[in-house]
Amino acid sequence: MFKIDYLDEGGVRRWEVTEDGAEATVEADYRPTIYVGAEEWATVEAHRDHIEAHPLVFETTVVEKRPGWRHDEKRLLGVEGRDIEAVDELAPAIANMARPGELRLYNVDFSREFRYCLETNTSPVPKGELSTLEIDVPPAELSGPEPGFTEATIADQQVSGDVVSVLETTLNRIERSDPDVLILSSAEIIPQLFRAGTEHEIKPISVGRRPGYQQLAGQSTYESYGQVGHSPARYNVPGRAIIDRSNTFFYSQTNLEGILDLVERSYKPLQELAWASIGNVLTAIQIREARRRNVLVPWRSWRHEQFKTMRQLHAADRGGFTFSPDVGLHEDVHELDFSSMYPNIIVTRNISPETIRGECDSSTTVPELDYEICDKPGYLPDVLEPLIEDREEIKTELRETEDPDRRDELKGRSEAIKWILVSCFGYQGFSNAKFGRIEAHEAINAYARDILLTAKEELEAAGWYVVHGIVDSIWVTPMEGAEQESLAQVAQRVSEEIEIDLEYEAAYDWVAFVPMKDSEEGALTKYFGRKADPPAGEDPYKFRGIELRQRSTCDWIASVQRDLVETLDEFRDSEQVLEVLRGHLNTLSTGNVDSERLLITNRVSKSLEEYTQSTRNVAALERRQAQDIDAHPGQDVEYVVVDDSKSTRERVRLKSEALDGYDSGFYRDRAIRAAESVLSPLGVREAEIKQYLADFEDTSISAWH
Q: 170 and 58, same structural domain?
């Protein structure tokens, strides 16, 4: 099964891949179940008649379930709703039958398709290969007042014309291809097709394998960790899964094989997993483990923090450990990484919400914090250990496989698992995590600090100087005047001591650590360097944090900065680098840079009306508004700066407009900043760069006379 459609009359239609194409099976009697509990069963019993009388309740049953990881089984009331739509209305209605918090509800806020797979124990993994069809439509075509669009790219084929001809071509291609999965540049393509059909009286329109479509969720704006994001509306068509490339993390970071790997682990069907966040998928995997242990999922989880001493509070708030980078260009540098450090800390130290600071017969003490961790196996290590082991197996096969198709599949699966492992630590400290616990988050950090310090002491004792260390990586260079023990031997000793592999990641001819903008202290995540003997076809340079790795940097600035790094690598001389920069700036000033290469991508955090300053983003939003192109907080705007001295919308030009010029002064300043990132490890800052360029220009002008 690869797709589930909920029916208006109740029940579901399941779609399966067969040798003869997709086949549908209707299950008419499926109904969702939520659970109701309380401190005392008598409280539930007192409200049972009212619950059963609710028109959206089909029936109730008494069950024995665990209301939490730290609880034994107890009596709860299973409430079966009449259909999937009943849950959203039924849950708050039951909660409001008693005083606030008196009735506690469980298994409420599951996504629709995931709920069906979980409750019926139905695997959403397709047994055959899925067919796909990609459709791309320019954003401006989907934002205008008129329904439909006049150009599209369908499976790499350009289509253009009037709305009716493009509509008919699109529908014909879908019908001929009969895809299981529609991969769309935006899910807004779906309603636009139907609106255009209605407008031009072309009926019936069928984008799915049955007529019609559904809007599952409207668009919304959200804030996460200080960043504003935009979630587009989600749509459903019968019999086909939709992957909206404007609203999918996992497809953008992995591939279809990576998504399907997580489908199998989480039981979230393809369409749901495509739009799900990392935390959403991790939670689904945890929920499957909870179900296996007969544990229910709280609706509105609330976990108080246990009492901490002042010393514990101080230690718990320290976070992860970092060594301030030694600013400068260092030669003969070696990088060592701890393998899946935080997930392995969780597994090897048995850190789990129900084991941390719990009541148990035997336990282990967390360094610095003095929290006790019960020895009884926790659920979180059981969730993560298979992920760690499977990824290691995938990486081993990847090293041994030369088949390109197999390598693409393995890379997708490895990346998908990596993102789950990366997030599992932070999710323990997330206030809305279903099974998180802040003390678990703090304990993981405490162990990580202890591990990094242990590694540093062992490396220094073996004759290696630590030039930088952050989270799970350490960079070392030979200590002057000391004899060096083999890094392989040191890593093996550290690995045995901490029970997590310290792996040799790479050797570098040199690495440059960049200082902060207005300080001589090292920036923790800004560095670049050249690898020693990189594999054929692999980029010899590694960049982190500098402009060419920043999503808002235009293509031209990124290429200039790379050229400067390559020049530094070749000559190790700041003046040679400055000469190369001067050449690029001359090209810029003469107007010989393609404007397409100067496009800047920025995310807007507010609606146009909310801005009080005339920024470049505001100018871009004003131009979009003038062209009836929607722009929502959390979405990107792409533009070229054409006159930065203006505060009106004439300051920029949008990507969708004719690009026939640019503000060379603005891009010159950006290029100089990028040059500073390259040269500041050598002690050359922005003021010196500008002075060098000015001296040359003065000399050149004098020569003309």
A: no
